[in-house]
Amino acid sequence: MAELKSIHPKVYDELVKAGIQKFSRVHSPRKRYHMMITNITESMNSCLFAIRKLPITSIAEFIRNLLQRWFHDHQSNARETPTFLTNDADQHIKERVLESQRCEIHPIDFNRFKVEDQWKEAIVDLEQRSCS
């Protein structure tokens, strides 16, 4: 960002004004997991390979349509997600919840619990955030 600011201060100002959390995973208030494309160049190259010999106006129109469809699909996917998590993360949590329902939990004191399932047992300490 410092390099961008020194080269194109107006672009830097516009990005900051738009909100860094919108384009930076580090500053995002939510965990995005695999929803964000990390290598846009490779994605675009694979999509544009077949049309490289077309006139530039046709290529520009194709790119506009492609990006419009991508943004629409991602927004639709995000709207249909019932939680702040991605579908993969939500499914992972659901599986863990099902696994946890097979456990027996015995309180030791207010913060510690003995957790047993068919194969093992452990002591969970909520205050220390630890599990044996």
Summary?
It contains five helices and four strands, in the order H-H-H-H-H-E-E-E-E.
Reconstruct the topology from this structure.
Elements: H1 2-7, H2 9-18, H3 40-48, H4 56-80, H5 87-100, E1 104-107, E2 112-116, E3 121-125, E4 130-131
Structure description:
The protein is an alpha+beta fold and 132 residues long. It has 5 helices and 4 strands; from the N terminus they run H-H-H-H-H-E-E-E-E. A 4-stranded antiparallel β-sheet has the order 1-2-3-4, with no helix packed on it. A hairpin with a 4-residue loop joins strand 2 and strand 3. The chain is elongated. The two termini are 43 Å apart. The mean pLDDT is 84.
Note the main attributes of this structure.
132 residues, alpha+beta, 3 domains, 4-stranded antiparallel beta sheet, 5 helices, elongated
Residue share in helix: 40-55%
Distance between the termini: 43 Å
Write down the domain tally. 3
Largest sheet: 4 strands, antiparallel
The strand line-up of the biggest sheet is: 1-2-3-4
Would you tell me the overall average pLDDT?
84
- Spatial shape: elongated
According to DSSP, the number of beta strands is 4
Rg calculated over all Cα atoms: 24 Å
Strand content: 5-15%
**Element string (H = helix, E = strand):** HHHHHEEEE
| Low-pLDDT regions | none
Look at the helices and sheets and give the structural class: alpha+beta
Number of helices: 5
